Amino acid sequence: MRSGSSNIYLNGDSSQKMSLKDKTAVLLGGLGGIGFEIGKHLLKNGISKLFLLDISANFDGEMRAELQAYNIDSSIYYRQCDVTDKDRLSELLRQEVMGRLHFIDVFINSVGIIDEQDPDRVLAVNLLGAINSSLIALDLMSMDNAGLGGYIINVASVAGLEPFPYCSIYTASKHGVVGFTRSLGIDTVLVKTGVKFITICPGATETALFRKHNMGNVFLLPWMEEAGLRLMRQIPIQSPSVVGECVIRALVEGETGSVWVCTAGKIERVTMPLNLE
Fold this sequence. Notes:
The protein contains 9 helices and 8 strands. The chain has helices spanning 33-44, 61-68, 86-101, 119-141, 168-184, 187-193, 208-214, 225-234, 240-253, and strands at residues 24-28, 49-54, 75-80, 106-109, 150-155, 195-202, 259-263, 266-270. An 8-stranded mixed beta sheet has the order 3-2-1-4-5-6-7-8, sandwiched between helices. Strand 1 (24-28), helix 1 (33-44) and strand 2 form a beta-alpha-beta unit. Helix 1 packs across helix 9. The longest helix is centred in the middle third of the chain and has 23 residues, at 119-141. Residues 3-15 have low confidence and may be disordered.
């Protein structure tokens, strides 16, 4: 088990860039289109132990080999998990994940669904899933609780930064993720725990989630479908790999509380209203 201080730069001092070499990472939603690409980029940049959690049970030998090719020396673990099952999630993180990794340097939540006809499920997965997993991870990672500090990254959406009326429930959930993550991304939390909180907001990305939009069955109100589909066809679609690159850049350069947008293949940190700390 590793001992000593973490590579966290307190009070926003990030004059040195973080190295991911020999670090550990937990990736919720790791088998999704965006999550899987994030996993590749983590491994490519030196993560030594990667633990994937996903509701899908389809982590086969081919997928493992595809990931392993990005870092042949890394250890890759996987367990099926529904982020809405808080007790099961806590059990997995506290027992099996910590048993395998011993410590968590990077915790990333990349879980998300769109279903405007089931608000309870959307909020349970997108918002409560992010809140509960982040708080469990914070407890395990906090220097105030024998942890070593680290990074907690929540993948939200550009829909969490501005109105998107065609998918209002999804938009509300992602606004909540942005607000929650930014609220913990303050120096008071960082100094006490050694944990940075960073938000990633992808734009339209070529994933099953986005393709479901084009099927026209996920809009809030039926009469919105025609206009919604017209808008979706006009939005530039980026590769999930861009989001993986965005996560790495945020890890290397990002200050706690920072919000990063990756859309149309471009990555940038966005200026948000000041925290009223």
